[in-house]
């Protein structure tokens, strides 16, 4: 566990950035991730022929060469400033700089409920025309974890139990979660994902406050 603890501590950094600089970086790198995100369904769905695909790949290779000229050699981690402006821009579910992240924003209600409306494109397919079960788990893990955090008990996922009640369509979906109770360092959270025809996946999670630093800002909605 020491190696994991060292890695988490190393990547949990007050980088002292001003709000202006954070806004500048968000405006620069957010749209880059959006462009890459838009490429994913295109790779699945394009009917372009040999020449167009070859040409597109040459453009992409040029873009990758430009972007790779200077880059960090470690994951993004958790960065914050003295105002408590936390950034998890590499996060797989809602990282501003992560093209696979399907959520733009997690909203917090005063009663502790957290929720998100989101869109899963064809790159998230599992069963034909439907959402991959692991993707539902991905989204629910984040939502339940955020409900634990908002409820004052931030933690790592210890156990996540899912019940897939009916196939989850691709497209526009809704997810929500709420902290039910805590026992010592353990937070018990429930949630679900619903589509146009009701609840598709139900989740129960136990989140455990670890012996290392975690984001504990409670009083704000999380936006990419
Ligand atoms: C805003 C943030 C949202 C984040 C959402 C995304 C969350 C994630 O993806 S986290 C990544 C996935 N999870 C992980 O990798 C966790 C890996 N596991 C670990 O790091 C550790 O096992 C950890 C931190 C969960 C628990 O370790 P540790 O603190 O040593 O637990 P330990 O002291 O043995 O047990 C504490 C209590 O929790 C219970 N417990 C321990 N592990 C588990 C578990 N996996 N499930 C349920 N209960 C557990 C113990 O029984 C004990 O209960 P009690 O106090 O009643 O006796």
From TrEMBL:
Q: What is its main location?
A: membrane
Q: Which UniProt keywords apply?
A: Apoptosis, Cell membrane, Cell projection, Cytoplasm, Fatty acid metabolism, Hydrolase, Lipid metabolism, Membrane, Transit peptide
Keyword Cytoplasm: yes or no? Answer: yes
UniProt GO cellular component terms: cytoplasm; membrane
GO MF:
hydrolase activity
- Record-listed E.C. numbers: 3.1.2.2
Family named by the database record: Belongs to the THEM4/THEM5 thioesterase family.
Xref: PANTHER family: ACYL-COENZYME A THIOESTERASE THEM4 (PTHR12418:SF19)
What is the name attached to this protein's record? Acyl-coenzyme A thioesterase THEM4
């Amino acid at each position: 566990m020491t190696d994991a603890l060292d890695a988490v501590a190393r990547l949990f950094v007050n980088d002292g950035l001003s709000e202006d600089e954070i806004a500048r970086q968000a405006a620069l790198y957010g749209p880059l991730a959006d462009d890459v995100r838009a490429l994913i369904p295109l790779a699945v769905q394009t009917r372009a022929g040999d020449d167009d695909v070859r040409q597109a790949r040459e453009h992409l290779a040029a873009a990758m060469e430009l972007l790779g000229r200077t880059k960090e050699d470690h994951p993004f981690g958790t960065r914050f400033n003295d105002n408590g402006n936390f950034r998890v821009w590499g996060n797989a579910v809602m990282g501003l700089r992560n093209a696979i992240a399907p959520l733009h924003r997690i909203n917090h209600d005063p009663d502790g409920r957290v929720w998100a409306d989101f869109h899963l494109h064809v790159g998230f397919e599992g069963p034909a025309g439907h959402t991959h079960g692991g993707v539902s788990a991905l989204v629910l893990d984040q939502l339940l974890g955020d409900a634990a955090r908002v409820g004052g008990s931030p933690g790592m996922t210890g156990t996540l139990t899912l019940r897939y009640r009916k196939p989850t369509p691709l497209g526009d979906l809704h997810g929500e979660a709420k902290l039910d109770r805590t026992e010592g360092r353990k937070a018990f959270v429930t949630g679900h994902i619903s589509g146009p025809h009701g609840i598709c996946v139900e989740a129960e999670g136990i989140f455990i406050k670890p012996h290392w630093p975690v984001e504990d800002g409670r009083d704000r909605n999380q936006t990419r």
